Amino acid sequence: KAGVTQTPRYLIKTRGQQVTLSCSPISGHRSVSWYQQTPGQGLQFLFEYFSETQRNKGNFPGRFSGRQFSNSRSEMNVSTLELGDSALYLCASRGALSYNEQFFGPGTRLTVL
Amino acid sequence: AQSVTQLGSHVSVSEGALVLLRCNYSSSVPPYLFWYVQYPNQGLQLLLKYTSAATLVKGINGFEAEFKKSETSFHLTKPSAHMSDAAEYFCAVKGGGATNKLIFGTGTLLAVQP
Fold it and tell me: Which end of chain A has fewer CB atoms < 10 Å from its terminal CB, N or C?
């Protein structure tokens, strides 16, 4: 079974731009979560989607948004990028019978200049 | 509220020595606890998980962890370190309620000396 895939792997943007990151979960997984990883703040939860519905959202400004499609693929968008948004963005998927075990993708490294 | 604390941001051991990475948790409900490993420029890989079935949990790559409720701990151990174990290790707890979000500790960077 293919793992979680994230595209692109690396991205460079400038302040004020917007960016869209994509995540394809493991086949059959309907739950997708996003996390931000930075040296200063560590790993922080962004949002969780299940069957196209946002179930939970972390403590991030409204510039951070996401969505999930009917095939369970998910995207997250960050508008009006700030330098502090530079981070590794990780996507994780979860199956129905996996005892909350989440499988992580390789991440997208976003650099904001 | 759920939280985890990892003691020691950097741990260095010699190859063949015992690995002990510490994690203490705080949870208002019986916790689901996890250890993940992250190699450079990669995502997180699950090492093991505690879901109340057994207090001693065996994971991949020879790692294991023991859940101790009285000490609110879930320390990760491996009897003999290998050079390939050098990585960053994260302890995590599932958030409370219906959410599946994971709350991570700050991580422990493990160095293995030859």
Answer: N
| Contact status, residue A55 vs residue A38, Cβ threshold 8 Å | no
Q: How many CB atoms lie within 10 A of CB A89?
A: 23
Q: Which residue has the tokens 């000396």?
A: B113
Which of A56, A90, A106 has its CB closest to that of B101? A56
CA-to-CA distance for B106 and B55, rounded, in angstroms? 23
CA distance B71 to A49: 34
Q: What is the DSSP string of B11-52?
A: EEEETTS-EEEEEEEE-SSPPPEEEEEE-TT--EEEEEEE-S
CA dist., res. A47 & res. A63, Å (int): 13
9-48 of A, contacting B, C-beta below 8 A: 31, 33, 35, 42-45, 48
What is the predicted pLDDT for the residue at A98? Answer: 67
Q: What is the pLDDT of residue A90?
A: 97
Please say whether the beta carbons of A23 and A5 come within 8 A: yes
Q: Is A1's pLDDT higher than 80?
A: no
Nearest to B92 by CA among A91, A26, A44: A44
Token pair listed for B60: 């991949």
Do residues B107 and B44 make contact, with C-beta atoms less than 8 angstroms apart? no
Whether A104 and B95 lie within 8 Å, measured CB to CB: no
Mean pLDDT of A75-84: 97
| DSSP structure class, residue A83 | G
Q: What is the mean pLDDT of each run of 10 residues along chain B (114 residues)?
A: 92 97 89 94 92 88 94 96 97 84 95 96
